[in-house]
Known about the structure:
Phosphorylase Kinase, domain 1; D-amino Acid Aminotransferase, Chain A, domain 1; 7-stranded antiparallel beta sheet; 16 strands
Amino acid sequence: MFDKISKLNCVKQARQGKVRDIYDLGDKLLLVTSDRISAFDVVFDQPIKDKGIILNQIAVSIFKATSHIVENHLISSEVKDYPSEFHEYHDYLQGRSMLVQKTRVIPFECIVRGYISGSAYSEYSKTGTVGGMMISDEMKESQRFEHPMFTPSTKAEEGHDINISYRTMMAHMDEWIAEELKDKSLQLYQFGHDMLLKKGIILADTKFEFGTYQGKIVLIDEALTPDSSRFWPVDGYEIGISPPSFDKQFIRNYLQSIGWNKQLPAPQLPEKVIAQTRDKYLQIHKIITGETL
């Protein structure tokens, strides 16, 4: 695989993100999702086998299912539709890549929380706020909000993203853009929550990213993947605890249990943790797409 990646990079140099390799094709991009895993904004040396295919196929499925809510940047996920210089890498690219429209990226992550967990619960425990907003009701970990909350964060190229208030985000863009981002994010969350609840899964929270193209706001990057979302099984849900999950929280929990300071160098992950993470990703892939890998 590494030889294929090296040869592919000779065709067109990639810009490497935490998980994706991005090939600039002028007015389009080729996004290739690797098997790299990141946690707390640090990329680990050990890959999770097939993770890139799992994320990419979920994202493609959700892009198609939510196009009635907001347009997205997907053009094709079939290698035959890519520029000819990529065709010889078909076996590597198929399933883990997508050709997308290049957009002007809006540099904020649009997080929607239906339940209080993770960093939101940590903030609430210290300040009584979530996303800078006061929470009047006393809440326990994993409790459902009366209404889903929109809590954006900065999108950092390096280092940690920073949670900000909706008001702070509005100060950096036209008001109508901020309102559109919030509205579409809440609609996408509700769609995902309702769809997954029928399948025995709670979508606790998730994040979306958007760009602009020809004056329109479009959904980009990924959507409702286990890298960008928190998924709980309905039969394991209980208020007051952090439920078992089908996402990256499993690795986060392990890292917190060993007291890692969330700084480089990243610790080595035990093979058991890697294998269990892969299994969780495969399970949510099948639940969302209805297909086995």
